[in-house]
Structures are given as structure tokens and as C-alpha cells.
Amino acid sequence: MRRELLLEKIDDLKQMMPWYVLEYYQSKLAIPYSLTTLYEYLKEYRRFFAWILDSGLSQVATISDIPLEILEHLTKKDMEAFILYLRERPLLNANTHKNGLSQTTINRSLSALSSLYKYLTEEVENQNGEPYFYRNVMKKVSTKKKKETLAARAEQIKQKLFLGDETTAFLDYVDHTYATKLSPRALSSFQKNKERDLAILALLLASGVRLSEAVNLDLRDLNMNLMIIDVIRKGGKRDSVNIAAFAKPYLENYLAIRQVRYKADKTDLALFLSEYAGKVNRMDASSIEKMVAKYSADFKVRVTPHKLRHTLATRLYDATKSQVLVSHQLGHANTQVTDLYTHIVDDEQKNALDNL
Question: pTM (2 decimals)?
Fold first, then answer.
């Protein structure tokens, strides 16, 4: 989604929110949370507050009028009723007969509410330096995790990673082969954005940064001499991330044409630009997702930018056998999340079985 459109949708949601959600939004924007994350959270709050009105838990006319006291006094049973509503509500899609949201979507909704409650009960300060209230009902609500072992998840992910020589083969394919299949009109568009697209693909594969981190990069955040980028991680923490050397020529090729090709001036700070009808914009997350899907599907299998992050992490673990290094590269606080990559590259168990 384009940044301008995203801001418009956020503004529409803010218009209907209670004052304490607007305070929450301002607080998280200052950290900063990404606009995409805040947009998704606001959508979840709209759904939650609409349920409160439909359930008769508040007698006010609009979402914006729901008082803070309603959240303070919601019970564990109330929250369980909300979860049941999400699980059993009819889907809006008329082409399906299934009811209810997926567990992943329910978990996302509960995560958004947990963040809001944590802000209201721990982070915010009233005029006396105290939070608005202390009772956090979300601490009593448990989420259901998808049941599968790391080994099972690793096998599913492994089929969608560009491991070994496939990383460079993928970039070579986009660079030298992809254009041969295009119509004249599609070829013109590809040629205009080829250097930029290759630079983005190479950066994702060579650094493992998240999509939001790549989108928010400014030109000044890239140090080509040290091959490092400065990013804002989750939680607003600034981090310096190393870039593998194979990405350097792709980044150099893009930087050489960035200003002229996209008509950029000194006020266009974004590293990755798009240009449409003479207007220059920061390339948005949706456009990058579509671009990655287009090239990857034509090469091997349709993947997401997050799978390119998994690719870098798996290759780095395979080369170093160090979960600590992988967690540092990905910006994780501990090595627990990186356990997955040990299962993707660990062939000792299979080799032992073959020798029985």
C-alpha cells in the first residue's frame, strides 16, 4: 500500500477511535512503530469496539464514545466471549461457507489488544504519574498456538527458500532471463525498474531485514563503504545491519541511476523510490511484496519478502553454525527464534538413519 493511501486509511480509523486509543497511537508513533503495524492494530480495535457496542457492553452511540471504564472492567469471560465471536462469526466472503477467523488472525487481534492494555495499565501516565488503571484482563487470556514441531515447520519452509547457489541464481535470473518472456509493454516497465528491483532483492537476501525495515530506509542509512545499513527494529530500537558482499554491485547499479531515473531531488530521502505520472514516492510495502512474488514465482516458487529473510538466516547459520550470530543479524533479542534454522540445515539425523 502506498504511504499516502496508508496515511489516509489511518486517518479514517483515527476519526472513529476513543481518545485513549488516539493517545496510544501517538505514543507508539513516537517509538516508532511502523505505520503498517499501527494500521493493522487500529483495524483490530475497530473490530473489538464494534463488538462491544453490538454486545451491549456499552450503551453509547459510537465507538469514539466508549469510555475508558469499559476496558477497565471487562472480565475474562467477556474476552472469551469476544474470542468465541471471532471464531464463529460468518465470514464476509460470500464465496465461502466457512465460519470464523483463522487462529492466526485471532492471535493477531489479541496481540493488538494486549499492546493497548499494556499501554493503559503500565506505560501511560495521568496527571499524578499513574497509569489510567491497573487491572489488565489480557494477562488472563491465553492464545492458542498452531501445533507443529520445529522440524515440521522447517520442512514446510525449506521448500520456499533459495538456499545455496539458488540465491545468486535467482538474482541472475531476474538480471538476464526474466526479460526474455515479457511483452513489449511489460518489458518497458521492467527495464525502467530493473536496477531498483534487483537492489531490493539483493538487499533482502544479503541482510535479512524485515520488509518494513527495508521500506523505511533512507538514502543516508546506507553505508556502501562498510556495507552496513541503519534500521529501526521492532520496538523502535536502532540497529546497524551488515550486508553480504554479493549485494554490492546491485546496490551500486541502482544508486547510479536513482536520481535521474526517478527524478529525485534533495527532498526525496527514501532509498527505494517509485515514480508514477511524474510524482516521486517512497516504494511501499505492498509494491515490494508484489515485486518479490512476481519474480520468485517465475523463477521457482512464489515467496514473500519474509521468506527471503528466512533464506539469509538459514544460509548464515549453515555457514557459521552460530545461533547467536544469526539472532544478531536478524535483530532478535535471544536465540530462541533461531532454533528453526538449525532444523532446516541439520542433516545429521537423516544421515544417521541412512546408516542404520
Answer: 0.69
